[in-house]
Amino acid sequence: MATINPNYDKLAAGYLFPEVARRVGVFAEKHPGAKILRLGIGDTTEPLTPAVVAGLHAGVDRLASRESYTGYGDYEGDPPMREALARIYAQRGVELGLDEIFVSDGAKPDSGNIQSIFAADNVVAVQDPAYPVYVDTNVIAGRAGRFDPVTQQYDRIVYMPCTAQNGFFPELPTQHVDIVYLCSPNNPTGAVATKEQLSGFVRYAREHRAVVIFDAAYSAFIRDDALPRSIYEVEGAKQCAIEINSFSKIAGFTGVRLGWAVVPQALEIEDGGAGKLNQLWRRRQSTFFNGASNVVQAGGMAALSEQGLAECQGLIDYYMRNAAIIRTALEELGLDVYGGDNAPYVWMKAPNGMKSWDFFDKLLTEAHVVGTPGAGFGPSGEGYFRLSSFGHRESIEQAVVSIRENLRL
Amino acid sequence: MATINPNYDKLAAGYLFPEVARRVGVFAEKHPGAKILRLGIGDTTEPLTPAVVAGLHAGVDRLASRESYTGYGDYEGDPPMREALARIYAQRGVELGLDEIFVSDGAKPDSGNIQSIFAADNVVAVQDPAYPVYVDTNVIAGRAGRFDPVTQQYDRIVYMPCTAQNGFFPELPTQHVDIVYLCSPNNPTGAVATKEQLSGFVRYAREHRAVVIFDAAYSAFIRDDALPRSIYEVEGAKQCAIEINSFSKIAGFTGVRLGWAVVPQALEIEDGGAGKLNQLWRRRQSTFFNGASNVVQAGGMAALSEQGLAECQGLIDYYMRNAAIIRTALEELGLDVYGGDNAPYVWMKAPNGMKSWDFFDKLLTEAHVVGTPGAGFGPSGEGYFRLSSFGHRESIEQAVVSIRENLRL
Q1: Which pLDDT tens digit goes with each residue over A105-139?
Q2: What's the confidence (pLDDT) of residue B14?
Q3: What pLDDT does A321 receive?
Q4: Crossing angle of helices A306-332/A294-303, nearest 10°?
Q5: Which fold has domain B9-47+308-406?
Q6: Cα→Cα distances B343→B216, B251, B386, Å
Q7: Which of A4, A108, A270 sits opposite B269 (nearest CB)?
Q8: Which residues of B touch A57 (CB under 8 A)?
Q9: Fold matches, A7-47+308-406 and A53-304
Q10: Residue A316 burial (CB count, 10 A)
Q11: Contact check, Cβ <8 Å, A5/B209
Q12: Looking at beta carbons, which residues of chain A come within 8 Å of B120?
């Protein structure tokens, strides 16, 4: 008789965003007149830029004629797309070979699937709070152990607290771990790691022969040029790190779906040497995946053109202005506010020692504003709250006015 | 120290099609003047139809304006897309709820990922020969055991031989198995299961509380109306079967990427009851996947419109005419030929007791025609050969002429 993967039943709760949607649904049903202002999910709201739209149309037209139609593409992505990505890295001094870049349908699938090339007994460390996909996919793979409802932790996952005390960047693990997930600019805290901070983890990884999974999905939001946009800007990172990135927030591709992973040939692993993880990820992708959509890649290529990059910078500037509006308003209310300067997320301490979900309900009920409870990202997120700058300017402004006028602090 | 998933090293050889590409590359380099005629990979060659092109363009345009732009969609696919798919099933008498249909980026990811919701010790049975993804993904998940280079089999996989003697549809397993992969119309043999044949497996699955993974990616090629296009046309299948399908061959979406899986609520599993596998697949998709591209889904919706369906039928008729040309030519040469009447693949016995890869090299060297060695699909495929009808008419005709004139039988 067939039986289920028992690890699914170890998942502590439904995925965070469905629970947010459920509570919003209940509220909307009870208050049919209320205008709900959504600063919850990090979902883009502004249209694709003209160059990207033209690129997508051209991609469609290529498939409309017999001469230019193409079927299956390379599992790793179209070579011109990988060349364009390599050029972007080269501008920051990072040289990558085309066989080190793997185009995909987004950072979420890559950050979920990457763990599958590692052994089931590897010990995983995550920033706490963190994007839930890192922990959940490792739970499903059997690396997490049991969930303790008191500590809100899985007993085999190493949680690295990110708090106001350490500027939301974790200390190095004091014990041995095998795989470390880092996200910078961080979702949810909006903190951005410095080169020195990343260097510490690269040194740790090389000493412990661990692998860093570096999620750089928000790197385009970095404005301070001294901050690294890629972990490979740090000496030695190619020997120990995989990097994941996405077009979702750069080009408004949350629904269009395009991302990429970098698995350097120099990346070493104890039981396979350099090149082994590159080979395994290639095998994983060629077995489970059939390449990113050719139409979508045509749009991605356009986003990486000179015109496309300039236009996408306009999108990023728009969302960063939103972030500044949110930050300023919350600070004026005397709240403790973090992030939002080199990242699209504003992270705040819930007032008066409130718990995250309680503040979620309060903000929704009083100001009709939806945010994301910090506790949904891990136990150290308890008492914190995330506001997303992805939204139309007028919604952001309405939300800020409503918070100022209606939130009882 | 990080270590690799050791199951990757149990994979017997590179994925079939990369090896085909390698040998063709070597030949092309040695014979730069030769015109190579490719009937190997089942890759579509004809342009998208006008309705689909219009649908894709409209999908792009929706993202170009602030009023109609959308970001993240439903993990399970846009509701109108699932409604359209449900209507197609209803035409064959199969009633499905929208919560039973999961839109994806293709049948390959779905048929690769579906095993991950089952326990690692489940025993898997596959048709032999079969699409390599079924076995390879189970090897990577640790269900296959060790590969025996003599039998060309993994010791924990149950191989169900499909040969000329049984009309290329397997007998029921004599031992107990937990998960059965069936593909009809079959890749690679082109055989199509009757209702009676599928009923046997449904009865077996219900008796053994096993689950059938039914790959119907080629169902649109069925011309004989008495043959089932969905396993759910068979009584009791909803209690024991998952079905996978794709837009790749229907609409020419091999590079565009769109597919779907059906996981019925009635599907039962011993340790979770009815609905459990539906819930697990939903959790799997919402954790590892962010929905199929919205642009691509707009094209898929157009393919399912009345006009789109009529146009896509034209594509299918075109490829089926190709199949008839290949079949007829090979039969005239006195070869043993199968499939190609309700499926886009023609399956033939290599002449004079030749092995599959030897015939591959012979056909390439003598006729400059690329096919796919049957042995690449499993041990019972040894001595057989697959020719794909996906190609421009003139290539198919040139290939047939070249085989007739140059192949030394």
Answers
A1: 999 999 999 999 999 999 999 999 999 999 999 99
A2: 61
A3: 98
A4: 80
A5: Aspartate Aminotransferase, domain 1 (3.90.1150)
A6: 11, 15, 12
A7: A4
A8: 57, 60
A9: no
A10: 18
A11: no
A12: 5
Interface contact flag, A293 B256, Cβ < 8 Å: yes
The CA distance from A84 to A98, in Å, is 10
Specify the CATH number for A53-304; select among 3.40.50.150, 3.40.640.10, 3.20.20.60, 3.50.50.60: 3.40.640.10
Give me the residue from A106, A178, A293 closest to B1, CB to CB. A178
The band of B15, judged by pLDDT with boundaries at 50, 70 and 90, is low
Q: Among A70, A76, A107, A305, which Cα is nearest to A187's?
A: A107
Q: What is the mean pLDDT of residues A298-303?
A: 98
pLDDT over 70 percentage in chain A? 99
Do A6 and B119 count as a contact with CB atoms less than 8 A apart?
yes
Give the closest-approach CA distance of A352 to chain B in angstroms: 33
For residues B298-312, average pLDDT: 98
0.90 exceeded by the pTM?
yes
Q: Which of A158, A288, A311, A372 best tests the B interface by mutation, with the highest count of B CBs <10 A?
A: A288
Output the DSSP codes for A148-185.
ETTTTEETTSEEEE--GGGTT-PPPPSS--SEEEEESS
The pairing of beta strand A259-262 with beta strand A241-246: antiparallel
Q: Which residues of B touch A283 (CB under 8 A)?
A: 8, 11, 15
**Fold of the domain spanning B53-305:** Aspartate Aminotransferase; domain 2 (3.40.640)
CB contact under 8 A, A3 and B178: yes
Average per-residue pLDDT in chain A? 96
User: Would you state the structure tokens that stand for residue B76, as one six-digit string?
Assistant: 């399970």
Q: How confident is the model at residue A19 (pLDDT cuts 50, 70, 90)?
A: confident
Q: Domain extents for chain A?
A: 7-47+308-406, 53-304
How many residue contacts between A and B have a Cβ separation below 8 Å? 258
Q: Give B83→chain A minimum CA distance, Å.
A: 19
Check if the beta carbon of residue A77 is closer than 8 Å to that of residue A103: yes
Q: Which residues of A touch B106 (CB under 8 A)?
A: 290
A10 CB neighbours in chain B (<8 A) are none
Structural contact between residues A370 and A364, judged by C-beta atoms closer than 8 angstroms: yes
Report, as an integer, the average pLDDT of A372-382. 95
Considering only CA atoms, which of B375, B136, B147, B144 is closest in space to residue A280?
Answer: B136
Q: What is the CA radius of gyration of chain B?
A: 21
User: Mean pLDDT, to the nearest integer, of B304-313?
Assistant: 98
CB contact under 8 A, A287 and B2: no
Residue A14's pLDDT is: 61
pLDDT digit string, tens, across residues B358-395: 999 999 999 999 999 999 999 999 999 999 999 999 99
At position B304, the amino acid (one-letter code) is L
- CA-CA distance, A20 to A15, in Å (whole number)? 9
Residue A374: exposure state from Cβ atoms within 10 A (0-12, 13-18, ≥19):
buried
- Give the CA distances from residue B113 to residues A72, A343, B96, in Å, rounded to whole numbers and listed in that order: 19, 33, 22
Q: Is B20 exposed, middle or buried (0-12, 13-18, 19+ CB in 10 A)?
A: buried
Do A1 and B270 lie within an 8 Å CB cutoff?
A: yes
CA B210 to chain centre: 21
pLDDT for position B18: 80
DSSP code, position A4: B
- Across A308-324, average pLDDT: 98
Of B2, B46, B290, the CB nearest to A106: B290
Residue B283 makes CB contacts below 8 A (sequence gap 6+) with A8, A11, A15
Q: Which of A77, A69, A122 is nearest to A245 (CA)?
A: A77
Q: Does domain A7-47+308-406 have CATH number 3.90.1150.10?
A: yes
Q: What is the pLDDT of residue A42?
A: 85
ipTM given for this complex: 0.96
